[in-house]
Amino acid sequence: MNSVDPAGGAPLSSVSAALAGFVAESRWADIPAAPRHAARRALLNHVGCAIGVAHDPAVRTALAVMRPFSGTAAATVVAQGVRLDPMAASFVNAIASNLLDYDDTHLATVLHPAAPVAPPVLALAEQRGLSGAAALHAILLGIEVACRVGLGVSPGHYARGWHITASAGVFGAAAGCAKLIGLTATQTMHALGIAASQASGLVENLPTAAKNVAVGNAARNGMLAALFAEAGYEAAPAAIEGPLGWARATGDVPDLAAMNGGLGSRWEAARNTYKPYPAGIVFHAVIEAGVALRRELGDRVAMIDGVTVAGDALLLARGDRVVRNERDARVSIHHAAAIALTLGRAGVAEFEMPAVTDAALARFRGRVAARLDESLPRGAARVLVRLVDGSERVRTVITPRGSLEVPLTDAELEAKFRDNAALGGLGDRSAALIAELWALDAAPSLTPLMRLLT
Amino acid sequence: MNSVDPAGGAPLSSVSAALAGFVAESRWADIPAAPRHAARRALLNHVGCAIGVAHDPAVRTALAVMRPFSGTAAATVVAQGVRLDPMAASFVNAIASNLLDYDDTHLATVLHPAAPVAPPVLALAEQRGLSGAAALHAILLGIEVACRVGLGVSPGHYARGWHITASAGVFGAAAGCAKLIGLTATQTMHALGIAASQASGLVENLPTAAKNVAVGNAARNGMLAALFAEAGYEAAPAAIEGPLGWARATGDVPDLAAMNGGLGSRWEAARNTYKPYPAGIVFHAVIEAGVALRRELGDRVAMIDGVTVAGDALLLARGDRVVRNERDARVSIHHAAAIALTLGRAGVAEFEMPAVTDAALARFRGRVAARLDESLPRGAARVLVRLVDGSERVRTVITPRGSLEVPLTDAELEAKFRDNAALGGLGDRSAALIAELWALDAAPSLTPLMRLLT
């Protein structure tokens, strides 16, 4: 464990140093089965999400803006038929992965770790001809570092306005890239410190495309941190936890044990979860309660006069909003309740503009009220509907599907992948891609995977 | 003036919107002579500083790392004989400009605005074939925006750990690039909001090369913000001042009047200052007092037994440190006093490794004590020397040369430029460069300037 000089001097062993030592010394052969499989699941889900939005204008625009700023084309942009340099490719792929809020979620931090971590690792591995096991190992360690750094500043960091996927994700990208290219522990420490001076991303911007730029930056700037550390650039040892370092600058006294405790035995990467719905994770219980009520009510949903959705402070803070566009819809209590109760489903299409502007859905959203219920745990929701005859129905969901308690199965993840692949135009390659991704740690190179993703 | 809905809703006119409107509507013909000339001085000083460190390993490494990640070579890397794409070139040039802490300083914020602002504007102007006046105008507005955004969160932002040159500089880079490429007011507002989600840079990392990465990022990410806004990406209107926006996330309730008040009449860019010494600005009074005492003492400097340097809290916080390398030396009370009192000068050479490791200077540094004197204003210092005979000499400098009260003259700026040009190997082009830079607003393109800088 690291500790701090009680006289207030420099830490005897910094957060960066402890995480860096763990990353540099980790061997794939020593990783237990559970975190190994967690890495495979994160990767499968990441690639599927990135394929699913291949036609989205936000992704196409990101590609168009970055293209003139790309060096030698050496890394695949997922499902675009284009290769860019590894930094530009990872920027676009990270944006795609996270675009619909459909990617993996580390619930304790609300961090989506694969989007910032996997793209730079895959891009560098493709460029340098490294093995599937090397890439998967680096992705696992990158996810672990992102979640741990995020955990050490949660929940204050997010509550203060930091979009943790970007602002802590950059550490994971740096750690993953550092592992992949074989940096020493000292170099990895510097990579993490350089990442600290690149961390950014604001909750205020979440309803807008500015969010995507920050997620893309977490990926490419994490890679940049590793490359600068490889080239000899250094950082302050206490860049993360020091008196003028990242954690305190962003408003938090870090929980060092959450960051560094039990490295190699406690795996935050194994506490990653996968979404059945392309909406903010805290809206899943709303959707499931709504779908269950619709099943119960059948045709009588037409008699709904009013809806009250109760949830914890985070649900209210994120979700009680006017819905103007797709981004709003994916983080709206009102929209989640409306589609679940009237349509009985919440797939990608139910959050796109036709649904946003649908007059009946808009009217229904207007009948939904949001209410704080502090007795409900994080991620839970209670949906109460009042019918025109004055009767009420209520359904409470504490642990929605995709939660830690009710994780998506591998088969459900595969089904989600197939849906995404079909949306992105790679439906006919689903089986081959799924097979390649599950067995990536046996692949001598990423070439077969990247050929399928081109 | 902007105001906020008293009910707590969205700002009626956001900080970004007000600054963006000012930037988009500004016309060079309407700019008074003083801010125009301030822009010329900032540019002259910036280019000189960037040339001066052309041989520095930190700059060479930055160039080497970025080179494989550069698209079409369209922008000059100062004094390197290389062109990169505008994003990569501006990254390297920003690092060079700020590397020695020898660049311009907006004293009220301790922000060095030209380093993040001028490189991306010059690089884009070179690529797009725009005029010298367009570039100078954009640099002026970018500097203005960076200083105003920084002013609105000062001094808390820096004190909490944010390296304001990077963390607020990115807004200036975005504003400058937005003006240069002709974005509308709305697009410019989005560029500023996208910049907010890219702001970073930590004081904890200032003694290390991680600092440089953040300054380089401010330049390239500000450009990226403008390019994404040009391509249609949007940001939250209150990305800067909103409840979960940049200012509050970084720890401050912003002073909106400091950011938006008196646009076009109060020019923060005209309050920019230029350093006679390549050291942190707060050490200049220490140096001048030391040089004055050395002149007074003559050979009796050998009889100095002890030195006490008194200054305000910022001086003590930044400068009371162990000196291990050149970066430490440039922000050390002890080193500043030692070179001033024993050598009587403080040029670039006096902060390089031979001086850092010089045994006599190291011994002298050990005799220097730092002491807080809250009666002294920011930027002032009192140097007291005790001789072996028990006698004392004291010298207090309230306003050192290069301050707002005693600004460097144009002739002094030219002399500094010539010194830098000689250090960077462009000494024989000094006269041509100076002439080109003073008259840039009459140049139809940047081609002649960039040819001289190649």
Please specify the SSE layout and strand pairing:
The structure is a homodimer of 454-residue chains.
Chain A: H1 15-25, H2 33-52, H3 57-66, E1 75-77, E2 82-84, H4 86-98, E3 105-106, H5 114-128, H6 132-151, H7 156-160, H8 164-167, H9 169-180, H10 185-196, H11 210-230, H12 246-249, H13 256-260, E4 272-273, H14 284-297, E5 304-311, H15 313-319, H16 326-330, H17 333-343, H18 353-357, H19 359-366, E6 368-372, E7 381-387, E8 392-397, H20 410-423, H21 430-438, H22 447-453
Parallel strand pairs in A: 5-6
Antiparallel strand pairs in A: 1-2, 3-4, 5-7, 7-8
Helix pairs in contact in A: 1-10, 2-4, 2-6, 2-20, 3-4, 4-5, 4-11, 5-6, 5-9, 5-11, 6-9, 9-10, 9-11, 10-11, 14-17, 17-19, 21-22
Written overview of the protein:
The structure is a homodimer of 454-residue chains. Chain A has 454 residues and is of the alpha+beta class. Chain A folds into two domains: 15-276 and 415-453, 2-methylcitrate dehydratase PrpD (Orthogonal Bundle), CATH 1.10.4100.10; 281-397, 60s Ribosomal Protein L30, Chain: A. In chain A, 51% of the residues lie in helices and 8% in strands. Chain A contains 22 helices and eight strands. Chain A has helices spanning 15-25, 33-52, 57-66, 86-98, 114-128, 132-151, 156-160, 164-167, 169-180, 185-196, 210-230, 246-249, 256-260, 284-297, 313-319, 326-330, 333-343, 353-357, 359-366, 410-423, 430-438, 447-453; strands at 75-77, 82-84, 105-106, 272-273, 304-311, 368-372, 381-387, 392-397. Chain A has a four-stranded mixed β-sheet. In chain A, β7 and β8 form a beta hairpin. The longest helix of chain A has 21 residues, at 210-230. Chains A and B meet through α3, α4, α10, α11 and α12 of A and α3, α4, α10, α11 and α12 of B.
